[in-house]
Specification:
mainly alpha
């Protein structure tokens, strides 16, 4: 039990040394990541639709 307590104390001490991002930076990063995710989702959807249409044309699908 002493090892666990010691470990948790060390973790707490290290977390107090961390420089946390400000609210503005977190919001800006979240918006940027969300935007990139939406762009990649749209790209993958377009490619999937195109490949699906292409394969249906070649294989004579319904």
């Amino acid at each position: 039990m002493n090892k666990i307590t010691g470990f948790l104390k060390e973790v707490y001490e290290e977390l107090t040394k961390v420089t946390w991002l400000g609210r503005k930076d977190v919001i800006r990063s979240t918006v940027a990541v969300s935007f990139v995710v939406v762009l990649i989702s749209i790209y993958i959807s377009v490619v999937d639709f195109g490949l699906n249409a292409f394969l249906k044309a070649i294989l004579g699908g319904r």
